[in-house]
Amino acid sequence: MLPSFAADGFLPLGRYSVSFEEAESMLVDAVEFQDSPTRRTLWEGLDRYIQRFFALEDAYLDDARLIQGVWLGGSFVSSKYEPRNIDAALLIDVEAERAVRGNPGSKWLTSAFKSRDSIREKFGVSPLRIGYHRVAHVFEPERFTPEERTYFTERGVWDDWWQRCRLPDQEARSPSEQSAIPARGYLEVRL
């Protein structure tokens, strides 16, 4: 069952796993958003953005996936009628990424995250990259490689951030101790 927005306009606290189609149904096709001047266009931009990764997968990878997950948060994952962009964190499989690098079209793997402003302008997406690693020894952090440690740090940072709300009376809109208490949910979109 898809989560519903709470009275404050956000999802209840937590990470909700949904398919791409379920996310579209909830965030674009829902009755309250059908006449939104931005939601459909932003969603189509997200789809075009993700399709660029799928094209690289189709061209250079057999069974591997470049994107292991997409986390959506921010105003697009709220009851805001007219969000300006889609905040997305992509979990990029570093082994698959290495297999694709050096091939024609692979510069996308860098440019997709290099200039958030240009990507937001072209696709309506404000992307973040989390380098995904398969780690068998999760309960033995002393064995983590530097890349694995970075992965767990980035994953934890963005999991924490997507559950925060900016405080309206804060001068700075950056994270603070006052905004650290989890206050909203976000979506993990399965592709």
Tally of helical segments: 6
Q: What best-fitting shape do the alpha-carbon axes yield?
A: globular
The low-confidence parts are none
Task: Tell me the number of strands.
Answer: 5
What is the element string, with H for helices and E for strands? Answer: EHHEEHHHEHE
Specify the biggest β-sheet.
5 strands, mixed
C-alpha end-to-end distance:
18 Å
Radius of gyration: 17 Å
Strands in their spatial order, largest beta sheet: 1-5-2-3-4
Description:
With 191 residues, the chain is α/β, with parallel strands linked by helices. It is 36% helix and 18% strand. The chain has six helices and five strands. It has helices spanning 20-27, 39-60, 94-100, 108-114, 116-123, 146-162, and strands at 14-19, 67-73, 86-93, 125-132, 185-190. It has a five-stranded mixed beta sheet, with helices on both faces.
State the gist of this model:
The chain is α/β, with parallel strands linked by helices and 191 residues long. The protein has helices spanning 20-27, 39-60, 94-100, 108-114, 116-123, 146-162, and strands spanning 14-19, 67-73, 86-93, 125-132, 185-190. Strands 1-5-2-3-4 form a 5-stranded mixed β-sheet, sandwiched between helices.
Write the layout of secondary structure elements.
Elements: E1 14-19, H1 20-27, H2 39-60, E2 67-73, E3 86-93, H3 94-100, H4 108-114, H5 116-123, E4 125-132, H6 146-162, E5 185-190
Parallel strand pairs: 1-5, 3-4
Antiparallel strand pairs: 2-3, 2-5
Features:
191 residues; 6 helices
